Amino acid sequence: MTSTPRALPRTAAFAHAAAWLFALAGLSAVPAARAQDDAMVPIAIPAQPDAIELGTGALPGAGTAESWHRQYERVFARNVTVATLTPFLPDPAKATGTAVIVAPGGGFRTLSMENEGWDVARALADRGVAAFVLKYRLNQTPAEMKAFEQSMREMFAGGPPRRMDPAEAIAGLGPQIADARAAFALVRERAGEWGVDPQRIGMVGFSAGAMLTMATTLAGEEARPAFIANIYGPLAPVAVPADAPPLFIALAADDGLFANSGFGLVESWRAAGRPVEFHFYEQGGHGFGMYPKTTTSTGWFDAYVRWLSMHGLLDRDGRATAAAD
């Protein structure tokens, strides 16, 4: 269905960065009033009748089966070995033809399937946007929950990661980029069936999912997202392609992972003359997603929808503003 990126070794530094990303997300994603819900409780794998296997194969060398748990009153998946894409289609009466691949976060060791996946997709579909939740393959973790929690504590105790070079991050995400590319290929292949304009397919990612969104965009080749969103992901400077898509960014000033490393990504996009919008919220922590909170970060989704509208992406006739050219 899609080509696989050239094989590149995963670096120890990237693995450590992803572990820290997961740990910080777990510490700060929970609304303050629900801190008692931070325990991870195993649950049965939920039915996913609409999930479509992407055909990228099983994760090489995987020996631990997929499992799910509940935390912060939301569900998470881990040890994903086979990638899937789940469509959330709008009412045809209000469908715009625009589509978004939704990439949840979780440090490449777990996926926040509800808060950063299904809830986002439902909200987009309600605005007339076809949304597709990407359950991408993950790094393996211990099967037993207590051993998994201990492994996260040990990784977190290792201290913060050094600043990651974007090229190094791309080198460590071969399977995940392949899954993202396959998702774009599938949506384009079935665009007529799903009422999607093949030229108006974007991607939004959260935390590790934001890292995957940027890596998929910068790695080039056939994914070609028409627009992208980085929600509390890293903001390291990058070499911006000449045809880079419009970029939407949202981050909280009290984010424990990415708020104190500068805004190089924003500056890179601006220097390249490409469209970028950046929302820097006073409060919100890391991992706010679709959780209802008292902070202004809760407004990120409405701002994102207004941004889509500004670029003509909610127009049924497919017109886009000059800023997106």
UniProtKB/TrEMBL annotation:
> Is the Hydrolase keyword given for this protein?
yes
**Keyword Hydrolase included in the entry's annotation:** yes
Read off the Pfam families from this record.
Answer: DLH
Question: What Gene Ontology molecular-function terms does this entry list?
Answer: hydrolase activity
Q: InterPro entries annotated for this entry?
A: AB_hydrolase_fold (IPR029058), Dienelactn_hydro (IPR002925), GDXG_lipolytic_enzyme (IPR050300)
What name goes with this protein?
Alpha/beta hydrolase
Swiss-Prot/TrEMBL keywords: Hydrolase, Signal
Q: Where is the signal peptide?
A: 1-35
Looking up PANTHER family in the UniProt record yields: AB HYDROLASE SUPERFAMILY PROTEIN C4A8.06C, PEPTIDASE S9 PROLYL OLIGOPEPTIDASE CATALYTIC DOMAIN-CONTAINING PROTEIN
Source superkingdom:
Bacteria
User: The Dienelactone hydrolase domain covers which part of the protein?
Assistant: 96-289
The organism's taxonomy opens as: Bacteria, Pseudomonadati, Pseudomonadota, Gammaproteobacteria, Lysobacterales
